[in-house]
Design a protein that fits this description.
196 residues, mainly alpha, 6 helices
Length: 196
Amino acid sequence: MWIGCYDWSARKILWVAWTWNALVQTIWGLLAVVQGQKISKLYDTFEENDRTSANLVTGIVATCAWAVVLIGLFLIFSLVVLLRKTIAKTGAGFSYGLIVGSAIHMFFVLGEAGVSLYSHERWLNDLGDAVWTGKDNEMFAAVAGFGLFAACCFLVLAILMIVYMSAVMEDKKEPLSSFRDRYGLGPSGGSSSQAV
């Protein structure tokens, strides 16, 4: 018996998973913003004609910023859709499928962001202790590693949203029955109405 979760409803599991994911993503977003501000201060340490270093810093900051913006958009959109779907219980539908697909997309976005940050770690270490200290490097590695963990949280959320789709459906109704009812299709795939 794991913390009494064995008797949770699908709706509760879905909302706990979404809330956990939102918490993890918010923490990573805040860490990425702080790290991005620290890295953007490196512009002042480069020579004026060192465009390569400036472009690398821009790439790191842009990667963090873009991931944070996408996380914010996902959290807002998915909150609205989940609130509507779990209250109305109108079935999965397009918008629910869109947030499941977006969660899978965010897995790849944050995975790419984490790998991109890791790929710049050696270059930052080569800047020297006067510009980039060991503590700065530890923080940078932690943000990159937490980004990969956050990416995995999106994948887990997507899987749970698929498994616990019943949270947005009427009780004891198979997923395709609302589609069949709406379009007048019988269980055999043909029209359920008889021609007279």
